[in-house]
């Protein structure tokens, strides 16, 4: 008769969490490097453009339109990276202001939607070239594993070591648990103890420099 599988210890779970975070940081760096290899028009950026060619507005993942039209005077902002929904809203606003041109504006609207979709398809080809889809898929899988591992840690029976692990993870939300960690420090050993010491003895470290925070 086989023995039931042993539950992972807090030390095993913490080591796994740190390993997954190290992998996540590497994936983020690789994704950013791949994105930097995309042509300028295929990179994410502000949605609008001003008369002088400056991009402004909220960030969007849609590519820059191939036929880019600049405003004819200062103060205006035209769509540079529109989605089909953005183009639809712009058409509706303009058609309401110029109802006598609705037919003409509808033709422009349909043409611009086709152009936006074609441009996105071209961007997807560029993303495949630098392996962005595979990297993003790996990042998503890593996130799922980290979340599952974290939930396992949070579901552990209450012990000082489990409390320390939870407090260290909660620091990613900007919370300072230094006082509690100082009191709990004698209760932990191994990697958990090393990371508590890292927090207690290096107050100048930023969150991103800590191995248990992404």
Structural class: mainly alpha
How would the global form be characterised? elongated
Uncertain residue ranges: none
Q: On the 0-100 scale, what is the average pLDDT?
A: 93
Distance between the ends: 43 Å
**Which strand order does the major sheet show?**
2-1-3
Number of domains: 2
Portion of residues in helices?
55-70%
Radius of gyration: 25 Å
Q: Give the helix tally.
A: 7
Number of β-strand runs:
3
Name the helix and strand elements from N-terminus to C-terminus, one letter apiece.
HEEEHHHHHH
- Specify the biggest β-sheet: 3 strands, antiparallel
Q: Strand share of the residues?
A: 5-15%
Short overview:
The chain has helices at 10-36, 84-97, 102-129, 132-154, 160-170, 178-184, 190-201, and strands at residues 45-49, 55-60, 78-79. It has 214 residues and is mainly α. The protein has a 3-stranded antiparallel sheet with strand order 2-1-3, with no helix packed on it.
């Amino acid at each position: 008769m086989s023995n039931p599988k042993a539950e992972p210890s807090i030390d095993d779970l913490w080591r796994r969490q740190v390993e997954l975070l190290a992998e996540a940081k590497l994936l983020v760096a690789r994704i950013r490097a791949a994105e930097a290899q995309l042509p300028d028009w295929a990179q994410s950026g502000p949605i609008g453009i001003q008369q002088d060619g400056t991009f402004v507005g909220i960030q969007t993942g849609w590519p820059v339109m191939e036929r880019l039209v600049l405003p004819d005077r200062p103060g205006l902002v035209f769509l540079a990276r529109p989605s089909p929904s953005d183009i639809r809203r712009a058409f509706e606003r303009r058609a309401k202001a110029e109802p006598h041109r609705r037919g003409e504006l509808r033709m422009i609207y349909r043409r611009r939607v086709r152009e936006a979709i074609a441009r996105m398809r071209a961007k997807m080809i560029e993303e495949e070239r630098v392996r962005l889809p595979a990297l993003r898929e790996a990042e998503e899988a890593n996130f799922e594993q980290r979340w599952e591992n974290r939930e396992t840690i949070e579901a552990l029976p209450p012990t000082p070591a489990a409390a320390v692990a939870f407090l260290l993870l909660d620091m990613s939300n900007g919370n300072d648990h230094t006082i509690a960690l100082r009191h709990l420090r004698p209760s932990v050993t191994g990697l958990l103890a090393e990371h508590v010491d890292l927090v207690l003895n290096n107050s100048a470290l930023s969150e991103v420099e800590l191995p248990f925070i992404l």
